[in-house]
Specification:
heterodimer; A: 354 residues; mainly alpha; two-stranded antiparallel ribbon; 2 strands; disordered C terminus; B: ABC transporter involved in vitamin B12 uptake, BtuC; two-stranded antiparallel sheet; disordered N terminus
């Protein structure tokens, strides 16, 4: 019988190396084919890139919630996608109401700010309730226990909102101010994409300021560094954890509205699941627990998702490549977990974290 | 009113608020009106109404327990029960008022005043705990602003939409009818009815708790048997239909619901039986304990034989419709046992189990189909392809396991979830459409043929599932006691220590994934043959979550637990159609509740129980 592992040779390493070579080959060949065929012009590439950036900034906002919670509790809040859904789904009604009174198109800035605040607060309440009811009793239990709870919470929230608002699809109304394009040379950039990118950037800067410059941010960093010592320093750990969930929830809710401006269709109870997994991918990609990492990871994932199918898959002769967008994202997830679980910016994590 | 000032009032208020919120919640997600369609006793009570009564009743019962521990007297208990019952009704009453045309202004008023109330309450707390007045003012302003954003937005939404119903779809006429006991036209009468019934139910819970043990147990037994038979009236009827003649059946059932006389008789009989058991049950158990070991073994042997007999005869006992349900349950038992090898034995949380299920189903579909996508056009039969499906699933499990061998715990879970999603997207994609049919799937899968007989009926398919489950059960019991089983256990407890002990963890994990995949493949193949066609939308993350839930609820690493878990989680929604809309709501709630209160599951595995106890002891020793 052959051995799986000897000192010189490990089958697992070998397989992973083969996988690595195959992936690189696939990417190179696919990209070469696409680029040499010249099917997609430079302006189109730029368009794809910018669309990817805006989609990515939405992922980044959600990813921040994963990263904040992971940084403090070392747990994957699997239900975070549903926190995003809660805000996005609830705010559809507000958006419809604002649209019907005409306020949405008369005062788009105020209306969108109100919607973001509303969605953020709804998601925040959901996240806080989640922590208080489901996760707090499980602190300090084996690591799979909170994960299974979070999976349960995820489905519980999905079907709660399905029960509350019904199972049909809803859509955000169009905001007139966000329609239209800006032309720069050959490239047409939709205004809504610029809006998405800028508002996400502002929120992220706000978070950065909160964590780095305020007292409560200092407390968050202290708790994530060492809970026991933080407690000895007089920090109310439970409150800081709750606050962290709240901030993550707020960003997710805001992302829900921004996403609704970007892609108005398809608002229903299941809308948070796939973005949730993708945002988790983004968080891991940037190095989970690392705030700039989550932002970078989100943008990176968005761009890869936009360009990947057209560049690599289409080049490999796979039909309907854009259907496989999600496959690209999930493959990214698995690949990052295999090859660089510490992420782009992450330092090599200790065994306790990895 | 002394009771409200005592320290017991906190317990009463908490319980009342909890059960009240529960009642409003199940109303808002639509459970009450959906379950109202199922009558438990004909023209007397529906399942929705049972739910409505159960909340105050249970709250009253728990309250009596808690208050007795505090040393409260009977009068206090009864008053407490009444108050809890009324409190339970309160949130529903408020929602009824908000939803009625005449009292809608109350909703508006509440939403507009709420920010001030909430902010003042929170600021008052902060004031009492001794904060400076500037800080208190700041807290007041911030909370008032944040709450106002939410409540004024809500007020705007309801004003533009016109009513609650257009947002909260389940706060509709049906719901109103149930909670007001059909007095929805006269809201005042309806509210008084609701409060009265709820108060009485709360009192009832207390009274039940105050009864001596024997009649209490008998009553609980009688009530639950009657309720269960009533709720599953359709199922019970289907079973009885096989064995009783029409007139007897008609005397018991009005269509699918229990007649009142029959329900009363059933209640009396089961209460009497419960009474007898409560009186003599202990003696019977003592008698069994007093028997010689050989006699005990005989009794157990007879029990096992009866059980096997029932398993073998099941399709004849329960008829066609229920056999179909039994096959579905069996498929999930099969998957549960398989996934348990990864989760329960080796501690590898695999969330992509649907991958193996899909591989098995598609392999069978493509190889046996007589449709345009069939590769072999009927030359391959079910029996020839089953081993192929098994091997293919094992191969898929192996391939997907290799990259994740280095991962641990939560990363492994997410990576396998990713695999499951990738497979789902590929199945529906245009890329693989020429082979597996894209969204249209593969049709025309022939039924298995056994010695010339086509096994078209669920009664016959049942035996295939039964045999497959028994084989899997045998294998997994043997595995658990094998060298690999002990290696898995070591890995589950501590991977580093396992490696240090010289266990080739990579190899052991691969084995776990591969073997666990095998049963998934068989289950998928049987599923494909049962349905006769496969569609990509049968292979979503929900399958994985289903299997995970039944393992967690039944008991990790516990084979009987998995069977019970499958019967409860898969069988229940199949038998109670009203339930199926809420199955994932229930699964989610169950997963959370089980993890918090009973992580070992309903029927815990003996090994895990031992380990848990040892762990508790070690912790206690460490703390001491």
């Amino acid at each position: 019988m052959f051995k799986w592992k000897t000192d010189e040779f490990s089958w697992v390493d070998f397989t992973i190396d083969v996988l690595r070579v195959l992936i690189v080959l696939g990417i190179v060949i696919g990209a070469w084919n696409t680029l040499s065929s010249g099917r997609i012009s430079f302006a189109q590439w730029v368009n794809l890139f910018i669309a990817g950036l805006s989609q990515g900034s939405i992922y980044a906002l959600i990813a921040l919630g994963y990263t904040l919670v992971y940084g403090i509790l070392l747990m994957i809040n699997f239900a975070h996608g549903e926190v995003f859904m809660a805000g996005a789904f609830s705010t559809v009604f507000l958006a419809e109401a604002l649209n019907r009174t005409g306020f949405l198109n008369e005062q788009p800035v105020l209306a969108i700010l109100l919607m973001i605040a509303f969605a953020g607060l709804v998601s925040m309440s959901v996240a806080i309730l989640l922590e208080r009811i489901a996760y707090r009793p499980l602190r300090g239990s084996p690591r799979l226990v909170p994960l299974i709870t979070a999976i349960g919470a995820s489905f519980f929230l999905q079907y709660t909102f399905r029960g509350l608002y019904g199972s049909g699809f809803k859509a955000y109304p169009q905001v007139r101010a966000l329609q239209g394009v800006i032309q720069i040379g050959d490239v047409n950039i939709p205004i809504v994409q610029i809006f998405v990118f800028c508002s996400a950037l502002l929120l992220m800067l706000g978070l950065y300021w909160l964590v780095e410059r305020t007292r409560v941010g200092k407390a968050m960093r202290a708790v994530s560094e060492n809970k026991e010592v933080a407690r000895l320093m007089g920090i109310d750990i439970d409150w800081v954890i709750l606050f962290t969930f709240g901030v993550g929830g707020f960003l997710a809710g805001a992302a829900g509205v921004i996403n609704g401006m970007f892609r108005p269709q398809g608002v229903n109870f299941f809308m948070g699941f796939i973005p949730g997994i993708k945002a988790f991918t983004a968080a891991v990609l940037g190095g989970i627990g690392n705030i700039p990492g989550a932002m970078l990871g989100g943008l990176f994932l968005g761009v890869i998702e936009a360009i990947g199918p057209n560049l690599v898959l289409a080049g490999l002769g796979i039909p309907g490549a854009n259907q496989l967008k999600d496959v690209i994202a999930f493959t990214m997830l698995v690949l990052v977990l295999i090859f660089r679980p510490q992420g782009i910016l992450g330092e090599r994590l200790s065994e306790a974290k990895a | 009113m002394t009771i409200l000032r005592s320290r017991n009032s906190g317990i009463i208020l908490t319980l009342g608020a909890l059960s009240g919120i529960f009642l409003v919640y199940i109303g808002m997600v639509g459970m009450i009106s959906a379950f109202h369609k199922r009558e438990v006793v004909n023209d007397f009570i529906s399942l929705g109404q049972v739910l409505l009564l159960l909340a105050p009743f249970a709250a009253g019962y728990v309250l009596a327990n808690r208050l007795r521990a505090e040393g409260a007297g009977s009068a206090q208990l009864l008053a407490g029960g009444l108050i809890v019952g009324l409190l339970t009704a309160l949130p529903t009453v408020i929602l009824l008022l908000f939803n009625s045309d005449d009292y809608r202004f109350l909703l508006d008023l509440t939403l507009r005043l709420a920010p001030f109330a909430v902010a003042s309450a929170i600021a008052w707390q902060s004031y009492k705990s001794g904060s400076e007045s500037s800080r208190v003012l700041g807290i007041w302003l911030v909370t008032a602003l944040l709450t106002a954003i939410v409540t004024y937005s809500l007020a705007l939404i309801f004003e533009v939409k016109g009513d609650l119903r257009s947002v909260l779809v389940n706060i509709n006429r049906d719901w109103e009818k149930v909670v007001t006991f059909d007095n929805w036209r006269e809201l005042g009468v309806g509210i008084i009815t609701l409060c009265g019934i709820s108060g009485i139910a709360g009192l009832g819970g207390v009274v039940l708790n105050l009864l001596p043990a024997v009649p209490r147990r008998a009553l609980v037994y009688g009530l639950s048997v009657t309720l269960l038979v009533g709720a599953f009236g359709e199922t019970v009827r289907l079973v009885l239909q096989e064995h009783l003649d029409r007139d007897t059946l008609r005397a018991i059932f009005q269509r699918d619901t229990l007649r009142q006389n029959a329900a009363l008789t059933l209640f009396l009989i089961s209460t009497a039986a419960g009474f007898l058991w409560a009186l003599y049950g202990e003696r019977a158990r003592a008698g069994f304990g007093g028997m010689a070991p050989t006699q005990q073994r005989t009794v157990r042997g007879i029990g096992t034989l009866v059980f096997i007999g029932i398993l073998l005869m099941l399709p004849w006992l329960i008829g066609r419709t229920l056999s179909d349900v039994a096959v579905t349950i069996g498929i999930f038992v099969l998957m549960g046992l398989g996934l348990n090898i990864a989760i329960g034995l080796a501690g590898l949380l695999d969330l992509g189990y649907v991958t193996n299920y899909a591989v098995g189903a598609y392999i069978l579909a493509v190889l046996t189909s007589t449709g345009p996508l069939g590769l072999m056009q009927g030359t391959f039969t079910f029996w020839m392809v089953i081993p192929v499906a098994l091997l293919a699933a094992m191969f898929a499990g192996f391939i997907f396991a290799v990259p994740v061998l280095r991962m641990r715990g939560d990363y492994l879970a997410i990576a396998t979830l990713g695999f499951g999603e990738i497979i789902g997207k590929l199945a529906i994609s245009d890329w693989l459409k020429p082979i597996i049919g894209g969204a249209q799937g593969v049709q025309a899968i022939p039924k298995p043929v056994f010695f010339g007989n086509e096994l078209t009926n669920p009664e016959e398919l049942y035996y295939i599932v039964l045999v497959a489950s028994l084989v899997t059960l045998f294998v997994s019991i043997r595995l658990n006691n094998s060298r690999s089983g002990r290696q898995w256990m070591a890995i589950r407890e501590d991977e580093d220590v396992a490696t240090a002990m010289g266990i080739d963890t990579a190899r052991a994990k691969l084995l776990a994934f591969t073997l666990s995949a095998a049963t998934g493949g068989v289950a998928g193949a049987i599923f494909a043959a049962k349905v006769g066609s496969v569609f990509p939308n049968s292979f979503t993350v929900f399958v994985s979550i289903n299997v995970l839930s039944l393992i967690i609820v039944g008991g990790i690493a516990s084979n009987p637990g998995i069977v019970v878990g499958a019967i409860v989680l898969i069988g229940l929604p199949e038998l109670l159609r009203e339930f199926s809309d809420f199955r994932f709501l229930m699964y989610g709630a169950l997963l959370i509740l089980m993890m918090i209160n009973r992580p070992q599951g309903l029927i815990p595995s003996t090994i895990i129980t031992h380990e848990a106890r040892a762990g508790v002891k070690a912790k206690a020793a460490g703390a001491g």
